[in-house]
TrEMBL record, chain A:
PROSITE patterns: ABC_TM1. The chain crosses the membrane at residues 27-51, 83-109, 121-141, 169-193, 226-249, 269-294. It comes from the Bacteria. This is Sugar ABC transporter permease. It is found in: Cell membrane. Belongs to the binding-protein-dependent transport system permease family.
TrEMBL record, chain B:
Belongs to the bacterial solute-binding protein 1 family. It comes from Devosia nitrariae. This is Sugar ABC transporter substrate-binding protein. InterPro entries: Bact_solute-bd_prot1, SBP. It holds the Pfam family SBP_bac_1.
From TrEMBL, chain C:
Its main location: membrane. The gene is ugpE_4. PROSITE patterns: ABC_TM1 (PS50928). It is found in: Cell membrane. This is Sn-glycerol-3-phosphate transport system permease protein UgpE. It comes from the Bacteria. It is a multi-pass membrane protein. PANTHER family: ABC TRANSPORTER PERMEASE PROTEIN MG189-RELATED, ABC TRANSPORTER PERMEASE PROTEIN MG189-RELATED-RELATED.
Length: 307, 424, 280
């Protein structure tokens, strides 16, 4: 309050009220990030939209205005329904499997056990292993005569030809992707679990609530903000995966594992249809934006806050 | 008429621009930096290319050439991004599968005149068969610096252990046919120790590599002019039926989703390019042989894979780039390149030159496989917009690689799907 | 949940974790062991769990075939700069979005969040054109500027904002009453409290930069400038075939130091994150 009085006594500075100074500080604080977003996200995105209105063949060096022609082509593209369905299945499968495995691992690694640090590190290790090595090894393991079917044979099961049937190929690319990156979500969940106040469990124990009930009634609500955050990151990330699909299945068999970003990559960089590739980029962007917005809205209903 | 006048004026203005550029170079001796993208990071390759670039400097002291290795898997993607971004390299290696795209697009500078004008170049020495893929309307747009024939490597230890006839025996008896080759492969597979015949790098995805088999039936994926699909023609149906039977009935070839490496001693035979001889095990080796592809119902044949190098028409120093290309592929430097890349020049196609390239191979093997192969070989199939056609065919052919597939019906579907793409 | 476990329970937990570990550890094991195998043994089937012969010369060949030490340095310094830069940019932006009231702050935050949503394949061509016009092709600038200021830093800003929201506001109020400026408050009060969140941001950012693949191959062209993931693709024989054992030796050397750092830092990292409680 003294400060305020001080300010008033100096009329020269009345323009710089607390609010104004704060606002100025706020803009200065966000300026680097905001300029970066304008320069490296918004302008490129605008250019991508501009490309999407053109027929652009890079090799032939043609760049012709097409209006909404690419968007009409998008609506008529016979492959698109398949591609969207594959993307939806891939993302849904990936998010569900990733989140549940991450949570399971986090709960296991939260126990008081000797050597738990070693386990944490090993579960995390695929995150830093080279993607090339990772994909090669899994390519091997998933062969018809590969390691996984070898293991299954030992227990008397005839394993499927994993990468050669639509269903198992989809399962395979999801699982390979999840094992590679689940470590990151696992660490986020582990941190969230350790952040749950111990007193809550003690109270529950006094009431004689069984472990499972404690988990559902206390743990899950308390870590729900983390679940929301990781699910947004994971779903956004899932729509951007294609390197491993390219190596493991090339989008096959048929079109069964051709997800949207892989299709986009093919059209733009392999088939050289940059204009149509840009149109698919815009579609991908809209899908991600809508999904994220929906999840963000749902947080009010699903996420528990302590205050 | 209209397009002709346009062409004329384009040529005229190009000539003016070229002479301006040339006089500029000669007058000011401005430093010119040329950039060539390649997909090999091998240091021996780079040393050789740098040596050639140094040699060029003797006559062109103002020209620097740098070689830019890009990862093979992303080669075309990265190249395309550079072009799209407005920064094309001056020169680039080009994969055979994308040859038609680059050659037909107008992105590359024509080479024939410049090559013919180069002293001692001897264009007639370059095999016409080898340049076909890289030529449009009689004009060469990229030089095939590597022309590598497909052949069969055989593991005689495995074959004799299974009591089957080796390719050498069959060749001697004049019975080296696909029927007998499949029989030998099936015999080894049945013995249970190893698999039969592997088409390397095919993986039931890169189907164009199977041309090394179906050409024996006289089959081809599309007509000469590339306009009509011929997957459903009787030759192709027969060839594919033979392959399908070999895979699913006789077990002569490992099935889809099975990874088998010949060079690790896990298969009786493999079809691949001769350069893969470098993979033969040095320790604990097996008794191996290299033989030409067997004859099919259509008789003897050979298949080659190629890589080309071209200069970009839109790059600022295109004339210097073309000049460098002429220097790099002249007879003298072609001999250097032949250390690593089988040459397209007939004067270099002798067992002597090639022996230095392929120290593992005997003179007879070189004669029978390499020289005969390069001289008569048909290049792997290519087409404008090949990547899209490749993917479309790949997706349809997935239905063929099932035990109970209806070969004729699947191939008819392939044609239905790619007909519109071919017609474009 | 964290009660002391009975011995039987402990054995069961160890067993369960060991089984779950197989798919995580086997590929890494294969990478490390294959790096000392002769090339013909790598793809033998079934693979040897323990190599039949050890050939460590692959590790020295890595340095002979590529300027690998230089490439290592490139990756390391780029990742360090990106990490440091991202921590500064994101903590400032995150603090402002969480704490300071200024017009349109919510709308601007939404715009910034867009950065989270765009795959890098989408914007790579326009970005290439941009950096070309600035003469920054074949320099490390695109690999530093884009992650620090562009899309990749948005996740960090998001984490920092969530952290500062959860921080009790009373700590700063006192300082404000004492007349401290915003920057001073941020620097002397808020930022020191944000160490755990900064730690999380640092690890994620470092890993992202360390593993970056598409951008280096598009922006860099000379081997001296290459980063590690890009260098890994360069180990090929005279015929273009991959020299797998050498490539895997290089891959092993790329992964190990990061794992060591993780082992050392993971306790603080996890506990640090635990106190922040990332909230949506």
């Amino acid at each position: 309050m003294t400060n305020l009085a001080h300010d008033i006594s100096k009329p020269r500075r009345t323009f710089w009220t607390m609010e104004r100074r704060d606002a100025a500080a706020g803009y200065i604080f966000i300026a680097p990030q905001l300029m970066g977003i304008v320069l490296f996200v918004l302008i490129p995105l605008g250019l991508v939209f501009w490309y999407s209105l053109h027929e652009w063949n890079v090799l032939a060096n043609t760049f012709n205005f097409r209006g909404l022609g690419n968007y009409e082509q998008l609506l008529r593209d016979p492959a698109l329904p398949q591609v969207l369905a594959a993307s939806a299945i891939f993302s849904a499968g990936l998010v569900v499997f990733n989140m549940s495995l991450a949570l399971l691992l986090a709960v296991l690694l939260d126990q008081k056990l000797r050597g738990i640090v070693v386990f944490r590190t090993l579960f995390f290790s695929p995150v830093v292993v080279s993607l090339v090595a990772w994909t090669i090894v899994w390519g091997f393991l998933l062969q018809n005569n590969g390691g996984i079917n070898g293991l299954l044979q030992m227990v008397g099961i005839e394993g499927p030809n994993w990468l050669r049937h639509p269903t198992t190929a989809m399962i395979s690319v999801i699982v390979v992707q999840v094992f590679k990156n689940v470590g990151l979500n696992m660490i986020l969940f582990l941190a969230a679990l350790q952040g749950v106040p111990k007193e809550l469990y003690e109270a529950a124990r006094v009431d004689g609530a069984p472990r499972f009930k404690q988990f559902r009634r206390i743990t899950l609500p308390m870590i729900s903000p983390t679940i929301l955050l990781t699910s947004i990151i994971t779903i956004v990330g899932s729509l951007q995966v294609f390197a491993q699909i390219a190596v493991l299945t090339q989008g096959g068999p048929g079109m069964s594992t051709t997800v949207l970003v892989y299709y986009l990559y093919q059209q733009a960089f392999q088939f050289h249809f940059f204009g149509y590739g840009a149109t698919l980029s815009i579609l991908l962007f809209l899908i991600v934006a809508v999904l994220t917005f929906a999840q963000w809205q749902m947080r009010r209903r699903l996420v528990f806050y302590e205050n | 008429m209209h397009s002709k006048t346009f062409l004329k004026s384009a040529v005229a203005s190009a000539a003016i621009a070229a002479s301006l550029a040339w006089s500029g170079v000669a007058w000011a001796q401005d430093a010119v930096n040329l950039r060539m993208t390649i997909w090999s990071g091998n240091e021996a390759h780079l040393a050789m290319f740098n040596e050639i670039a140094e040699g060029f400097k003797e006559t062109h002291p103002n020209v620097n050439v740098t070689f830019e290795p890009l990862p093979f898997e992303n080669y075309t993607t990265t190249l395309t991004t550079q072009i799209a971004g407005g920064n094309p390299p001056d020169l680039a290696w080009i994969l055979e599968t994308t040859a038609a795209d680059f050659v037909n697009s107008g992105a590359l500078a024509p080479l024939t005149e410049a090559f013919e004008a180069t002293e001692g170049y001897d264009m007639a020495d370059v095999s016409e068969q080898a340049t076909a893929l890289w030529t449009r309307d009689g004009q060469l747009y990229a030089y095939p610096f590597s022309t590598s024939p497909f052949a069969i490597f055989a593991n005689n230890d495995l074959i004799t252990a299974a009591g089957a006839r080796t390719p050498a025996d069959l060749i001697e008896a004049g019975e080296w046919t696909w029927e007998n080759a499949f029989a030998t492969a099936a015999a080894v597979a049945q013995a249970g120790e190893a698999d039969g015949l592997v088409v390397r790098d095919f993986n039931y995805q890169v189907w164009q590599n199977v041309a090394s088999i179906w050409n024996g039936w006289g089959a081809s994926p599309w007509s000469e002019d590339g306009k009509t699909c011929s997957f459903s023609e009787p030759e192709m149906v027969e060839a594919m039926t033979a392959i399908h039977d070999a895979v699913f009935k006789a077990g002569a070839m490992p099935g889809p989703g099975e990874n088998v490496d010949f060079f690790a001693g896990d298969a009786a035979m493999t079809i691949t390019q001769i350069s893969r001889a470098s993979l033969l095990p040095k320790e604990d080796p097996f008794d191996w042989d290299l033989v030409p592809l067997p004859t099919g119902p259509a008789g003897e044949y050979a298949v080659v894979g190629q890589a080309g190098v071209g200069a970009f028409a839109n790059a600022p120093n295109v004339d210097v780039a073309v000049e460098f290309l002429a220097y790099m592929t002249n007879p003298e430097n072609s001999a250097k390149l032949a250390q690593f890349f089988p040459p397209a020049r007939s004067s270099l196609l002798n067992a002597e030159t090639l022996a230095t390239t392929n120290p593992l191979l005997s003179a007879e093997q070189l004669e029978a496989v390499v020289i005969a192969g390069i001289s008569n070989g048909k290049v792997l199939p290519g087409h404008t917009n090949f990547a899209q056609i490749q993917q479309t065919v790949r997706a349809e052919l997935d239905a063929l690689w099932q035990p109970d597939a209806d070969v004729a019906a699947v191939l008819a579907n392939v044609c239905n799907r790619i007909a519109p793409l071919l017609a474009q | 949940m964290k009660t002391d476990l009975s011995p039987r329970m402990k054995v069961a937990l160890y067993g369960l974790m060991c089984i779950l570990l197989i798919p995580f550890v086997f590929p890494t094991w294969w990478m490390v062991t294959s790096s000392v195998k002769p090339i013909s043994d790598i793809f033998a089937f079934p693979p040897d769990i323990i190599p039949r012969q050890f050939d460590f010369s692959t590790y020295s060949q890595v340095f002979e075939l590529q300027p690998f030490a230089r490439q290592y340095w490139n990756s390391a310094y780029i990742a360090a700069l990106v990490t440091l830069g991202t921590m500064i940019v994101s903590s400032m932006a995150g603090y402002a979005f969480a704490r300071i009231k200024f017009p349109f702050s919510n709308a601007i935050f939404m715009v910034v969040l867009l950065g989270l949503l765009i795959p890098s394949e989408v914007t790579i061509v326009p970005l290439f054109q941009m950096f070309l016009s600035w003469g920054m092709i074949n320099t490390h600038w695109p690999l530093i500027l884009v992650p620090v200021f562009g899309a990749p830093s948005v996740f960090a800003t998001f984490v920092m904002r969530q952290f500062f929201i959860s921080l009790p506001v009373e700590l700063e109020e006192a300082a404000r009453v004492d007349g401290l400026g915003r920057f001073k408050i941020f620097w002397t009060i808020a930022l020191p409290l944000a160490k755990p969140a900064l730690g999380a941001v640092a690890i994620f950012t470092f890993l992202h930069s360390w593993n970056l693949y598409l951008e280096p191959i598009v922006f860099l062209s000379s081997t001296q400038m290459f980063t590690l993931p890009q260098a890994l693709t360069q180990f090929t024989d005279a015929y273009g075939g991959a020299m797998w054992n050498i490539q895997l030796a290089a891959a092993t050397m790329t992964a190990l130091p990061v794992l060591v750092v993780f082992i050392i830092a993971q306790k603080q990292f996890v506990e640090g994150l635990a106190h922040t409680g990332l909230k949506g």
